[in-house]
Specification:
It is a single chain. This protein has 271 residues and is an all-alpha fold. Helix content is 81%, strand content 0%. 37% of the residues are buried.
Length: 271
């Protein structure tokens, strides 16, 4: 493994991000929308709305909360804000790095072809596995950094807005820390590897983007399950899920490197 070469490829790709408006706009506005604006609005609405008039479905969701999470919460508004902040927002924070990483990753090899730089890259003295690792880092670092920044900003805003109701900090809890520091990085790596593999076999950015978009479907499923009260994910389950996703990432990296040798990439992308 040539770390110097890997980092050089990653730096080159990260610099090119700002030349593609579809990518850098997402890195700025998606975290602001899903990670800052939406949580702020959700807390404000949860503080002020009349929960009793919201319907039975909302009350059923609140009843799905584990008992240990609702003890000491005096009103339905307290429980609603707590539910939204610590459960319903979680899938949205998964979307932030995954969508951004997907947009960067699908542009990795396709972008090289469109800029007519793929030939020189394939003829350079670098192992294919190192090439994929470099592409992976170029997608992971900015996408995860944007997610962490939105997480910090969201934490400040949520606690400031929720403090008049709770008179204490309610964010983040253990679930959030496990998710942000373990599950989200592992899931993002899987999404990037799949997207890079798609990009290596695609002829255009649009084609790669459409196929790689399948990665978002599991997150939509989690969001629906969380919002309907069918699935309350605890820290232990998330820790196991993160370990499984990390193992899948290593398997994917080896598989992708073997399936996309230099001659295969050249034939698919340069012709």
């Amino acid at each position: 493994m040539n770390r110097k070469m890997i980092w050089a490829i990653a730096q080159k790709d990260m610099r090119s991000i700002w030349k593609t408006s579809k990518v850098w706009i997402g890195l700025i506005f998606l975290p602001l929308l899903l990670g800052v604006i939406f949580p702020a609005v959700a807390v404000l609405v949860g503080r002020s709305m009349d929960v009793s008039d919201a319907g039975g479905s909302l009350m059923r969701m609140l009843e799905q909360l584990p008992l240990g999470n609702t003890e000491g919460l005096p009103t339905d508004n307290h429980r609603l804000v707590y539910f939204v902040v610590n459960f319903l927002l979680a899938p949205l924070f998964i979307l932030i790095p995954v969508i951004n990483a997907l947009m960067i990753a699908v542009n990795s090899f396709v972008g090289e072809k469109e800029r007519r730089t793929l030939e020189s890259l394939l003829f350079s003295p670098i192992e294919i596995k190192d090439l994929f690792i470099g592409k992976l880092l170029a997608s992971f670092v900015p996408a995860y950094a944007a997610a962490l920044c939105s997480f910090v900003l969201s934490g400040i805003i949520i606690n400031v807005l929720a403090y008049p109701l709770f008179e204490r900090m309610i964010f983040p809890n253990v679930n959030w820390l496990v998710m942000m520091l373990w599950v989200i990085p592992a899931f993002t790596l899987c999404a990037i590897l799949f997207s890079v593999w798609v990009s290596a076999r695609s002829k255009s950015f649009q084609e790669a983007q459409q196929v790689a978009g399948v990665v978002v479907l599991p997150i939509i499923g989690i969001l629906i399950a969380q919002s309907s009260g069918l699935l309350i994910i605890g820290p232990l389950l998330m820790a196991v899920l993160g370990a499984v996703l990390l193992a899948v990432s290593f398997i994917l990296l080896g598989f992708i490197s073997k399936m996309n040798q230099r001659n295969v990439l050249f034939e698919r992308q340069v012709q």
